[in-house]
Write a sequence for this structure.
């Protein structure tokens, strides 16, 4: 990677670091270890990114002093939490219309993640997070705390299969038949609102059918 910038001495306070970085190909786990306390890092893979990095002077930990913003392209993703990786693999199988194979221990899928981010105050804020895996496109926005104690994301999943094709049970498929057309949009088999919350060790995945309505309610209550 290449770095351009300056280390500025501030009398009585320490040093301020200001850098423009260009990383054409690095291990994301090494990149995360510089900024995130949790071990092992939440995921592994290969990252390409261009970022602006500022580390303010002071006695606080680097995670609190670090400020950064930029974009990234992440490939060969593997989540170190087996439960999270299993959910990703099973989502891919269901999204492709193969729910009978969606079981813990399913083969890892090849996935790609792209996004725009801002780091500050010990948090990573993703204004855009696109996660593409076989059978599904996941588009999210949200916050991840560097101590691993907060996940808070909302967005939508576009799947190749229709809603009724994503369940293995015939009776569940039958029950979903009437509502399946309501989720079929814009050329996708289904467009499903989702939310991810909780912590790094215990993430919670769920449908977020009323998130859009709650956003509208908030705007009304604030007078916007």
């Amino acid at each position: 990677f290449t770095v351009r910038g300056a280390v500025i001495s501030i009398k009585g306070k320490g040093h301020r670091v200001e850098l423009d970085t260009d990383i054409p190909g690095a291990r994301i786990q090494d990149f995360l270890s510089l900024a995130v306390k949790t071990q092992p890092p939440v995921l592994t893979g290969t990252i390409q990114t261009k970022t602006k990095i500022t580390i303010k002077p002071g006695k606080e930990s680097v995670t609190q002093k670090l400020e950064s913003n930029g974009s990234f392209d992440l490939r060969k993703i593997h989540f170190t939490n087996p439960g999270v990786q299993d959910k990703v693999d099973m989502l891919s199988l269901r999204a492709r219309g193969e729910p009978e194979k969606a079981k813990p221990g399913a083969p890892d899928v090849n996935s790609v993640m792209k996004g725009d981010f801002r780091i500050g105050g010990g948090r990573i804020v993703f204004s855009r997070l696109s996660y593409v895996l076989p059978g599904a496109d996941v588009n999210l926005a949200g916050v991840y705390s560097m101590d691993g104690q907060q996940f808070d994301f909302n967005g939508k999943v576009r799947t190749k299969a229709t809603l009724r094709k994503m369940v293995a049970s015939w009776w569940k498929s039958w029950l979903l038949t009437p509502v399946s057309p309501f989720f079929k949009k814009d050329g996708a088999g289904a467009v499903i609102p989702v939310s991810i919350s909780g912590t790094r060790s215990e993430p919670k995945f769920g449908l977020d059918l009323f998130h859009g309505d709650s956003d509208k309610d908030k705007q009304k209550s604030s007078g916007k």
Q: What stands out?
A: Residues 209-224 have pLDDT under 50 and may be disordered. Helices lie at 28-35, 62-65, 82-95, 170-176, 180-183, 211-221. The first strand starts at residue 2 and ends at 10. The chain is about 20% helix and 45% strand.
